[in-house]
Amino acid sequence: MTITDSLHSLTRLSHYLLRLREELDRRSRATVNLRDFAERLNAAELDETYSTILRHSTELLGAERGSLLLFDEGTSELEVKATVGPHAEDAHAARIPLGEGVSGSVLSEGRALVVKDVRATGWHADKTGRSYKTDSFISFPIIIGGRKVGVLNVTDKADGGVYDEFDLDLLEMIAPQMALALERTEWHLKATRFQLLSITDPLTGLRNRRYLEERIKEEIERSKRHHFPICFMMIDIDDFKQYNDRNGHQAGDLALEIAAQCIKFALRTEDVASRYGGEEFSVLLPQTSLSKALIIAERIRRRVERSRFPDRNSQLLNSVHVSIGVSEFGPNVDTPVSLISAADQSLYIAKRRGKNCVDSYTPSALSKI
């Protein structure tokens, strides 16, 4: 072996050792980043799970752009839940059918796609005219126990490089943590929806009586501690039985929905509207004086009066009116039962006065009933 050959061999060995060192450094950094990923994901609030997964996944892989899509089993479509990078907000409206496009195909087949140069494949990197920094990307399916959950996409490496099998290995290492976090969030959302159903009137979408009674107790306790005023309304659709008899129960149900929307749109964020029963509604008004409550009640009455309600043929031709009774928490009205009762008695007075009006609780007025 000549001296020249020896020098060439040493040069090759030096290059090999340098690449090996770079690879070891890369894996060492990845190990640290993996621990950091797990810690951040565990510390994330449930409502930030999607953005946390995507943000830290893109950081881990050095990506400047990415998206997280979840699978909707009801529609068999992928829905964008989080995005990072340029034009990120434009992608949120996208829904991708299973089996279509890169993400739909990756999830359908259950296999990750690592593309070093999109120009050498049959995939179109972008159909919207937006430019990408690089032609390399990874599309990674998220699957829990054989169940399709979603897809994570990353592209545009910050250093302009291409994605390779090492990057795919990183995603496969964090996949169980992603799946666990997504499953935890899914169960939380299901529990929240179930809880919401248990306190919601199915016809009108307002809170139900059970929820109302709990909130009244809470607000009264808060009022006693902080001396906040509270008011309460009972709202009744005038002559609703005759309306039902004349137009049919389907029109009656729609009338209840329209009335509920009139009430809802006339209220503030902190007010609690509920369907009390039948054609009766109620509104709890925290931190509200009687004078202000009467203004809100009149606003509800006028909104209902100006709306149009369905006839038997579902034509919006009918007028409907409501009567409203208002009560205020105070010395003689200091329990949930008495607050509701006082509003109910005020409602009775409004009916006696000719309906389609608002009245409020005063002991003197009640003594004349």
Topology of this protein?
Layout: H1 3-43, H2 49-60, E1 63-72, E2 77-84, E3 95-97, H3 101-109, E4 113-115, E5 137-144, E6 147-157, H4 165-198, H5 209-226, E7 230-237, H6 240-247, H7 249-265, E8 272-277, E9 280-286, H8 290-306, E10 309-310, E11 316-318, E12 322-328, H9 336-352, E13 358-360, H10 363-367
Parallel strand pairs: 12-13
Antiparallel strand pairs: 1-2, 1-6, 2-3, 4-5, 5-6, 7-9, 7-12, 8-9, 10-11
Helix pairs in contact: 1-2, 1-4, 2-4, 6-7, 7-8
Structure explained in plain terms:
The chain contains 10 helices and 13 strands. By secondary structure, the protein is of the alpha+beta class. The protein folds into 2 domains: 3-195, 2-Layer Sandwich (Beta-Lactamase), CATH 3.30.450.40; 209-367, Alpha-Beta Plaits (2-Layer Sandwich), CATH 3.30.70. The strands form 3 sheets. The protein has a 6-stranded antiparallel β-sheet, with helices on both faces. A 5-stranded mixed β-sheet has the order 8-9-7-12-13, with helices on both faces. Strand 8 and strand 9 (280-286) form a beta hairpin. Helix 1 (3-43) packs antiparallel against helix 2 (49-60), helix 2 (49-60) packs antiparallel against helix 4 (165-198) and helix 7 packs across helix 8 (290-306). It is elongated.
What is the correct CATH architecture of the largest domain?
Answer: 2-Layer Sandwich
Q: So how many helices?
A: 10
Report how far the terminal alpha carbons are from each other: 120 Å
Broad CATH class of the largest domain: Alpha Beta
For the secondary structure, the number of strands is: 13
